[in-house]
Amino acid sequence: MTDRKIAFVAADSEEAQLAREQLETRYGGTPPAEADVIVALGGDGFMLETLHAHLERGVPIYGMNRGTVGFLMNGYSEEALDERLARAEQATLHPLRMRAHCANGLQTQALAINEVSLLRESRQAASLRIIVDGIVRLPELVCDGVLVATPAGSTAYNLSAHGPIVPVGASLLALTPISAFRPRRWRGALLPNTAEVVVEALSPEKRPVSATADYTEVRDVVRVEVREDQSVSLNLLFDPEHNLEQRIIGEQFQH
Predict the structure, then answer these.
(1) Is 169 exposed, middle or buried (0-12, 13-18, 19+ CB in 10 A)?
(2) Model pLDDT for residues 40-84, shown as the tens digit of each residue
């Protein structure tokens, strides 16, 4: 048992649920709403779910990998959890806030910890205008889509789309095209984290576009505004030898 109030939450997999049961038996368990720290057991997808579920509290979250992808997770061990939590280093992240305007006049707001992405809805490529801080930077981008990624999300969908890996402390956002057709040579841009990115659908009736902020998807959008929300803080805990900054640097030397 420990004086620290720890909540254990787990993904639905048998492996994650078994780990939760074993850890609660050993260290006790507290409801997440009352905990000093939350230990999330699963993969990166479950870590995102846990972060979204506790956005309002800002409680530190320490992940242990019981899933398939564990970039945001520490290694799993039942031993010396108190000591690991005491030694853990905190990384503070700020999510993106998406405001999507739909063809029917409705608006949707959502937060994204990884990225906001716009994707074509039909067989035809999307036709998009890219505006950064009120300046039209690309009058027309013909593509499968485009995304704005946080540093933490730069190793997720952004990396698969051949976007840059962004260190957490760099105060940058990645703007990355997905299968750009015109201009064919455009590979994206690195933007200051204070930038507001606006994406407009140029032919929404003929070339419909959807927008997704992590888990929130909006169909038939005509305009999407994205910027980092500094008023919301997410606190992740990492073992010193596997902190998020070092993982992002290390990911750039994978071969």
Answers:
(1) exposed
(2) 999 988 999 999 999 888 899 999 999 876 778 899 999 999 999
Paired with 227 in beta bridges are: 97
Domain ranges of the chain: 6-93+233-251, 96-228
Distance from C-alpha of 152 to C-alpha of 232, rounded to nearest angstrom: 15
Residues contacting 83, CB < 8 A, separation 6+: none
Q: Which residue type, as a one-letter code, is found at position 137?
A: R
Task: Determine contact, residues 169/90, Cβ cutoff 8 Å.
Answer: no
Contact, 97 vs 115, CB < 8 A? no
**How is residue 219 written in tokens?**
């169909």
Active site residue 214: no
Choice among 44, 144, 214, 229 that is catalytic? 44
- Euclidean distance between CA atoms 252 and 237, whole angstroms: 22
Token pair of 69 as six digits:
């992808």
CATH number (2.60.200.30, 2.130.10.120, 3.20.10.10, 1.10.1040.10) of 96-228 reads: 2.60.200.30
Q: What is the DSSP letter of 158?
A: H
